[in-house]
Amino acid sequence: MLEIAEKVHDETRQGEAFAPFKEEVNVYRKKFYIESYGCAMNFSDSEIIASILNKEGFGATRNFEDADLIFLNTCSIREKAEQTVRKRLTEFRKVKEARPGLLIGVLGCMAERLKSKLLEEEKLVDIVVGPDAYRSLPGLIEEAETGQKAVNVLLSRDETYADISPVRLDSNGITAFISIMRGCNNMCSFCVVPFTRGRERSRDAVSIVNEARDLFSRGFKEVTLLGQNVDSYYWVNETTNETITFARLMEMVALIDPSLRVRFSTSHPKDITGEVLHTMAKYENICNYIHLPVQSGSTRILQLMNRTYTREWYMAKVKQIKEIVPDCGISADIIAGFCTETEEDHRDTLSIMEYSQYDMSYMFFYSERPGTLAARRYTDDIPEDVKKRRLQEIVELQNRLSLESNKKDIGKTFKVLIEGNSKKNTTEWKGRSSQNKVIVFPKLNNDLKPGDYAWVKVNDCTQATLLGEII
Ligand code: SAH
Ligand code: SF4
Ligand code: F3S
Q: Which atom of ligand 3 is nearest to the CA of 74?
């Protein structure tokens, strides 16, 4: 069932490795290749890393065979994520054996978690850099070029890379991520992120709005504001003394242009405010979609997880969302088999899924992470086969909910932002509704292009996709 969880994960924005498309290697003195794992924050960080490296004369290449430097931007969220990286490193060992000058760097959360231990465990690694230390990468590369091992895993209280204009790597030219904050101050007991990413800090709002405006002027039509907990965004403009909350930030980005869509991720149920929901309802270009991780439907388990809300509180939040933003799509993250979880707790999770009618979920079974509160305090006592069976039941329920949610859209018409050709068929466009659902429809003979909006009527669906026609 690990496979199921990872498969569900992989079909989405998260989880898949990627290498940059942009190739301008001829103007650069050296070439680097980067693969990203984990969440959108990591993908976004790779674009900051690329920008830092470009300035120092390193150009991105899509082929690791051509690269002088290979970087893996890694994730520690579950054991499986780390295993994937280790496997990839074994593959690169062979490349390095054939080309001893090649430098290999591990960046991101796994670098932060394991620090210099990683150099002992993985002898072929030359460079280890944590998420707050990317500005030191050029210096560390120089150090590594002289044959030393180079490490910087210092976490920072104020680094936001606000002044760095990310180089858009694997971009479709239409949608982009903007990192608005870093770190996390929540201490969910299962989670390694506060340890790998450090304290929460918000990025200068002016730089965020400027980045969005610049993207829009270059033809981008959708930005996703990223943070582990976007609703706790808080920044004070020292020139005007204005306090910027997440709702205000979202509004500032939405006001750039009505044809620029605004999305955000992730919302912690305890922090999403009425102000945020009313701002969503007020602006047509703020998408009606909230990723609202529930983790568990049992109050007892939520307490052990240190999520700071109860089952009833979460359900009231879902109700409030549906009242203020009536056609809002909702998705969740769910963990099966957390410490001490009983069949009754598990049934509470299934029933909260039914209640919330999630359009989609990312589903995992609990993976103990060293150093976390749960690892220190509780025993990982649910047998693997029970975890797998519960996860299977959660996945099956979500499959049904997704199909039901899609069936409800048959006959309705949606404004769709065209992102490009459909994967299967170049005579069809693929785009998304405001609710973040993928819609595929025939191109017809008109002059629509990626980045345009189309009104599409839904005629049919699968569990994952709506099928429609332009009206
Ligand atoms: N900041 C986001 C989530 C970041 S991690 C939030 O708070 O919602 C993404 C998801 O991975 C989490 O929501 C959780 O469902 C899952 N996850 C985190 N730690 C995990 C662990 N130790 N085992 C299994 N799943 C985990
Ligand atoms: Fe992890 Fe919780 Fe922070 Fe999300 S809010 S990153 S789950 S500690
Ligand atoms: Fe993974 Fe780090 Fe993101 S642990 S989920 S890459 S913040």
A: 6
